Amino acid sequence: MNKKCLIIRYGELFLKGKNKPDFIKKLVDNLNLAFQKNNLANFRIKKLPDQLIINTENEKDLTALIPILKKIFGISIFYLAYQLESSVESLDNFVKKLFDYYEINFTTFKLSISRNDKNFPKNSSTLQKELGEIIVKKYQLKVNLSNPQKIFYIRIYRDFILVFSERLTGLGGLPVGSSGRALVLLSGGIDSPVAAYQLMKRGLEIVYLHFYQQTEGQTKIFALGEKLKFYNNYSNDIYLVDSRAFLTEIRHISLEKYRLIILKRMFIRYACRLAQELEIKAIVTGDSLAQVASQTLESLGVIQQASITAFEQVEVSTQKVIELGTYEISLKTYADCCALFEPRYPITRPKKEVVEKLEKEIFWEEILEKIILIVLLSSAKTTAKKPGQIGEEETLRIIKNFITTKRYSEQKLEESRKGCPAVVERKGKRGVNHNLILCVRNAEKGAVISHKLIKNVKNVLSLNSSIHSTTKELEELGLSIEELAKQKNASWYLTENLPTDAEEEN
């Protein structure tokens, strides 16, 4: 019986050597994740050396995969095909009933036949002649080898034959995650989203870092992450940093024209720290050489000298921005941190020694230690180990919102809770270096956990208060970290350097 299937050709990863199976496995994992995220089940993926074959019981479901496959890196081309038995008889019978499978909306055609199985009884030339004659006589069509209106592709393998007529172009590149992870400094502008996309194409899974100066207006940043998540294994993990302490301190720099460069160096330093904590080996920006007056080799070089992590700057094309759909989002008004210190006449050739001298005028190291980090996490998988983490790796990824601090008003906190599966408030305690943050893993009902009811964490799904428990408080409740680690529906980890109550009130 002739079965309909979907064929995926690998593209670039086909050129890999002994590690090619690892890339293919990653692509299959990404496909299965995409099917799961789109509530598509009962698909079977068969791996072959040069392609993947996807089968399902209901062949109509295969067409639902086409828009999904168009957003998965590692695919060169893909197409819907009919899978036949590998015999001359089955091929003849299929061609005789060709237009039971395809509409006759053309007058000229061409057959493109290749044999992977050289033991097949007839060679390609003979098959092209014999099968072409059948089509011409039965359907009164004409052969046109140079400019046909329709091409039928026939690929002959040892165990089956594939027949198809239309090839769709994939994104190419390498499967996301096959090259590791990168931290992208997402500014809210045009360049950084496309820089993220282009690094995804090279097999990097992207985590975003954004520095903000106001608690409102984060919708634009979330929208950019949401737009790109389909290319990034459905992940739009965003780390938000309250940069107001940076901005206040940077005003004490005596030379105004150097303030922006020093601010960016501070951002890079913090990005390096976060990258190390998350075991990420590269930091990415969307800077483009000579795009603006301040983006000279000298300026970019001085800024990057603050980095201790591999640094990547990506050239961005306007066409790619439009294709991604991030252009209109990036144009929306947003209070960008760097815009506050953009001098009227930017310095184009900053001196490293001057920058280092000016940095001594401010307390940037202390600020880095006390920075408030807000986390918006979108998936339940991670390999990152956080400093101070005990036991299992973090398993929870909070969806659609971020961990909030006492600095947010009660109104904002309540607004956050409405659309958030799990909102957790973290708050520093005087004299305590570590706070424990506990989150529900399955929080479909919008759970917020209370430290007063941690004993019942397995059943917590609809509480209305937040947690800011220290290890000492947990001991008073008769709980140990080891006991919490056994809770299967909870994720927990330790965080360091949270602000004290006195600091927050100031």
UniProtKB/TrEMBL annotation:
Q: What SUPFAM superfamilies does this protein's entry cite? A: Adenine nucleotide alpha hydrolases-like, THUMP domain-like
GO function term, MF aspect, one: sulfurtransferase activity
Main localization of the protein described in the UniProt heading: cytoplasm
Supply one GO BP term: thiamine biosynthetic process
Q: Where is the THUMP domain?
A: 63-167
Keywords of this entry: ATP-binding, Cytoplasm, Nucleotide-binding, RNA-binding, Thiamine biosynthesis, Transferase, tRNA-binding
Q: Which GO terms describe its cellular component?
A: cytosol
- PROSITE patterns referenced in this protein's UniProt entry, alphabetically: THUMP
Subcellular location as annotated: Cytoplasm
Keyword Ribonucleoprotein on entry = no
Could you name the domain of life of the organism this protein comes from? Answer: Eukaryota
NCBIfam families listed in its UniProt record:
tRNA uracil 4-sulfurtransferase ThiI
Q: What is this protein called?
A: 1483_t:CDS:1
